[in-house]
Amino acid sequence: QVQLVESGGGLVQAGGSLRLSCAASGRTFSSYDMGWLRQAPGKEREFVAAISWSGSKTYYEDSAKGRFTISRDNAKNTVYLQMNSLKPEDTAVYYCAARSEATMPGEYDYWGQGTQVTVSS
User: Fold this and answer.
1) pLDDT tens digits for 41-98?
2) Which of 1, 24, 67, 101 is the most buried (most CB within 10 A)?
3) Contact 19, 53 (CB under 8 A)
4) Which residues contact 62 (CB under 8 A, 6 or more apart)?
């Protein structure tokens, strides 16, 4: 079992930055690939970024490339999403998720409760 708790969301003006954190419980955090996904009102949840268990591989949705950076600290059981040059269209609830090796890429085993990010124009 892995429990995930996100933090760091809030209200920011367009062009600003936020750093989301996701703290995980459990001793096996370092064995999970981690992802950030988001869901805007009236829209389906979409992939934002992912990082391999070791941190050696990262993946981004096209609109996040060059603006967002995913990272992790396995010693702290935490994954981060640094978001720069934020745009109003980045407004959404951001979810942290964990995927075990046995789970298909794109699918996740555990989810956090989400943190709201609102970008004003």
Assistant:
1) 999 999 999 999 999 999 999 999 999 999 999 999 999 999 999 999 999 999 999 9
2) 24
3) no
4) none
Specify the 3-state DSSP secondary structure of 31: helix
Q: How far apart (Å, rounded) are the C-alpha atoms in residues 105 and 121?
A: 35
H-helix or E-strand containing 20? strand 18-24
Estimate to the nearest angstrom the gap between the alpha carbon of 120 and the chain centroid. 20
Residue keyed to tokens 């990262």 = 58
Taking alpha carbons only, the member of 58, 60, 98 closest to residue 78 is: 98
Q: How far apart are CA 29 and CA 3, in angstroms?
A: 10
- Residue 26 has a pLDDT of 79
Contact yes or no for 30/53 (Cβ under 8 A):
yes
Is residue 12 a contact partner of residue 118, using CB atoms and an 8 Å limit? Answer: yes
Q: Which ranges of the chain does DSSP label H, i.e. alpha helix?
A: none
